[in-house]
Model the fold of this input.
Amino acid sequence: MTQKASRILFIEDDASGREMGAFNLEKAGYSVDVAATGDQGIEIFDPQRHDLVITDVRMPGISGMEVLAQVKKRSADTPVLVITAYGNVELAVEAMKAGAYDFIGKPFNREHLLLTVARALSNRDLTQEVRHLRIKTARVERPILHNSGPMERTIAMADRVARSDATVLVSGESGTGKELVARRIHARSDRAHAPFVAVNAAAIPSELLESELFGHSKGAFTGAHKDRMGRFRQAAGGTLFMDEISDLPGALQGKLLRVIQEKVVDVLGDDVPVPVDVRIIAATNSDLKTEVATGRFREDLYYRINVVEVEVPPLRDRRKDVEPLARHFVALHGQNDSLAIPEDLLKTLENYDWPGNVRELENVCQRLVLLATGESLSENDLPSRMRSDGRDSNLAFAVLPPLPEDGLSLLDLEKSVIERVLELKNGNVSRAAVYLMIPRHVLAYRMQKYGISKKS
Done:
């Protein structure tokens, strides 16, 4: 039963009881930190350091019940044992209801103390193991490859807020990996066993977005031939990840605020609100403060979704992450081919500013793999913007015609560029997507949108 690697925080205002308890625990092989008051105990407590907290209930100043509340607020997984006088059953029951693992009668004997401690630590280990298994079997989380300090701090912040139920705003430039961070938060939360549902507000036509989010009943509008749950009810008990939340239309911002405040959704065509239990993680690459200032985003909604902000830094601010990411993407797109990445190529990749962030890096790596002719990738196969000075200063002007004074159609321009690239790549959609630095499914969607065939 000895847990030699476990560290215990022992809080007891009685000097002799504190000394005797710490002596028995250390003799059993535990590491022990002691505190004489509740205030001192809360100050000493470190969720990363302490595996268990033992606290007396009745102490001058902050009571053991307050210590229990503070510990559970900072680390729900850390078990707390409370010390109560023999016969004080009501206080012991109150502590158990507040989250204590068990209680120890005072004065306590050595055997009972060590047995209760061993049980609490064993239960903690089992709980963590079950959570890890749930995360693994759910396959929600994706690895966040990194070597940099900025990304380490982002991950640490994500892990700190994961166990709470607070709404989280994940901010960062496009392509930085905001959904990966959201998935990590979900996978480490108490909702990890429930669904993780993602929706991109910018990718769904505004006239369909309300039904997509909140659902509709049969006959609610023309074409509503059957009931639709909507993303909120699909995520019941779990997490709804709302990407590009800044693109949410004003009318739906008010409906989302109602969901957050009242925990109900108003289904189209149904008069009765439906209760929902969903945690919301929102993401944006826009400055929401600016959006609020200009009136495009509701201020009250901003503060509701921004209880905690987790900022994902751009790739140019975490260049140490380029190498592990590049090796991962080359292995991913190279499949069974073992392609080497020369040092000079790695240096070029690390020195580039990556305006498209990790998404652009993946597309470049896919391009290098597709164009590779030997066992090693070549710097000569990099896009021209990277082979020269690492910047793409003239690309836009190279593909644009002279700008007319009376304006031009951006949609026509995009269609023209896609057609020209497909012609350049002999109709190969995959190679065209690599050239345009967008995912293949995005290019396929735009081809369908503009009625462009592969033979264009």
